Amino acid sequence: MTSLADLYVLGDDLKKAIGLYENMVKEKGDSPKIHFNLAILYARASKIEDGIKELKKAIKLKPDYIEAHLALAVLYELDKNVEEAAKYYKEALKLDPTNTRLRRQLGKLYFRMDEPEEAIKQYRSLLKYEPRDVAPYIELSYMYVSVSKIDDAIKTLEEAFALGERREDVYLALGFCYNKKGDKEKAIEEYKKSIEIDSSNPKAYFYLAAMLEEAGDRKKAIENLKRSVELDPYDAESLNYLGYLYAEENVSLDEAGELIKKALELDPNNGAYIDSLGWVY
């Protein structure tokens, strides 16, 4: 019967597959695998609560069933019950402490729960188990910034550079850190390094433009915003910012109006963009 249920799944007939697994549960209620499979089918059918119940039955039958703990955590996340999600991620980690995917997910969840110190703790442990992956260093740096530990954020990104790879996203994160630290000159330097490596990222030009404007160089800020808009003509922030600077400088006012109107088409309820339009007219 399992094979038949699998065929229904492959054919996207979830209703029949669920019916077959529900019958199997009645016949073999002591099989954690059948409860698990039924839970996944319930989840695919958007029956999250039913899926949660089946996964709990699977765990009761097999307490070390790590896949069930992980699936339960994911379903609780989908159900927006982050406390229970964190509980089952932690249970899964007890069963597999070196699982970096689990630890990373738990860290991200803590961050969304507004518990940045717990998130940082998980990420520091993650780096012990997976020290060669650059992405967690970047994510950790932003977590440090969120709790105003800017120097720790910069140190973490320097650790990423020690891995021997020059990456544009690390320089971008460094620019962000130095901006938060109030060191505009250093922020500009890091954003420029990011662009040297990857000249196709519109956000790098946007962030560089913001720093240049703060430093008083509006001409170069405009040049970088123009490049940002060229690379992504549907980025409302860049469109509005460029239009606003044109208006501030009292140049290209017709173009400024068009840029800001386009930004408003993309984000009609943005009050800042409406204010920008007022500077043009």
Structure description:
The protein has 281 residues and is mainly α. 79% of the residues lie in helices and 0% in strands. The protein has 17 helices and no strands. Helix 15 runs parallel beside helix 17 and helix 16 runs antiparallel to helix 17. The longest helix is centred in the N-terminal third of the chain and has 14 residues, at 14-27. It starts with a helix and ends with a helix. Mean pLDDT is 91; it is low at 1-11.
What would a concise description of this structure say?
The chain has 281 residues and is mainly α. 79% of the residues lie in helices and 0% in strands.
Q: What oligomeric state do these chains adopt?
A: single chain
Order of helices and strands: HHHHHHHHHHHHHHHHH
Please provide the count of β strands: 0
Distance between the termini: 72 Å
Overall pLDDT: 91
Task: Offer a few descriptive terms.
single chain, 281 residues, mainly alpha, 17 helices, 79% helix, elongated, disordered N terminus
Layout: helices, strands, pairs:
Elements (H helix, E strand, L loop, with lengths): L1 H9 L3 H14 L4 H13 L3 H14 L4 H13 L3 H14 L4 H13 L3 H14 L4 H13 L3 H12 L6 H14 L2 H14 L4 H13 L3 H14 L4 H14 L3 H14 L4 H10 L1
